[in-house]
Amino acid sequence: MPPMELNLINAKLQRFERLAGLDETQLSDLAAQAEVQSARPGTCLLDLGCTESRQLFLLEGELELVAGDGAAHFVRHTDGAAAGPVSRLRPSRYRVNASSTVRYMLIEESLLDNCDSTPTSCVVVEETFPLDEPNELLDDSATHPLMFDVFDDLNRGRIVVPSEPEIAIRVGRSLGRQLDANPGRLSETLAVCPALTLKVLRAAKSVAREGSALRSTRAAVERLGPEKTFALAVNCILRESLRSDSPVVRGRMRAWWERTVRVAAISAYLARTSERFDPEKARLVGLLHSIGEPVMLGYAERHPDLADDDALDNVIYGNRGELGRILLTMWDLPRDIIHAATLCNHWQYEHPGEADYTDLLLVAQWHAMIGDARSRRSPSNEEIPAFARLGLGEPEPEVSIRIVDAGAKALELVDSLLLA
Asked: Structurally, how many domains does the chain consist of?
């Protein structure tokens, strides 16, 4: 293989997260076993449902990925989605066509699996919590074109977390009336809107990144101060509230907000039952666990098939955990918060030792979903290890009622809090 071509392959392999830690010798050995090919426009490189054992890496040009429903997407060699194998899963979920003249390489999956490399992501949170490459997520869980839109903007650095517009406006007005209030009162008001809470946390971290980790909304408000907190909130409300003409999207956003407020309140309530947990941190876990949902809702109106409630809910529910993990990792949130968001759909979550914040979140979610159409997605409490780990293996009816009431009361308090 010519040295120039070998260097090109090495450079491509170094972009792949799983191989980023290999040295030059290891990369050269792997590249020597790669098969490099060229193809003309219109050539099918990988068919839908293909079980080919080799992985396809795009070196130059543009590919068209056609899903089973006919939806087509394009990936150029300069895109973030080309940083790893194209259509990695087997059987392949896409028909991969060359839309221009392309050069690509094929490498056996077994060779990739045998590479002993420690991921060295450019985004690391608290020791070693890596952000996997977006292409990995696209193939693993993004089964709808909406996710291509999300990752395109993510790669371009223009991702937005929209607020529920009515609630955000009311929070902004209330903050403006409370500039002389103490940080605790301001943080209570701010926490009514999860998206604004996230943005204040991010801003507070950027003010003094060398300071102690922020584990509560109050700590973020204290660091920024009332006036900066208010100014940031107003700016975000004006620029980043959800704008949609779709009643389905607006209804789903409102439902997300209500459920998130309930989950946050129940998480804090459960935390107060044990000295191991910080209720403020538990509430923050609840507020941010599904922050990927409003992000996806900001793109839903582009896709006519998501005008159906069930279709929209399926796409959002199926992708919220991985997207939340990527966003919260990218924004350097505490590891407990990222971990809980990542596993928010994993009812069978198991781990050694005492209960953690993810256990709190799962139990809180289960109670918040009682009576909700989405409750069909959750198993019985006996099947959820988190219940037993929190000492709620067989909760008395009155205990469950008190837990559910904690979430209901949080919604009831919103009006009085925002009218203050």
From this structure: 3
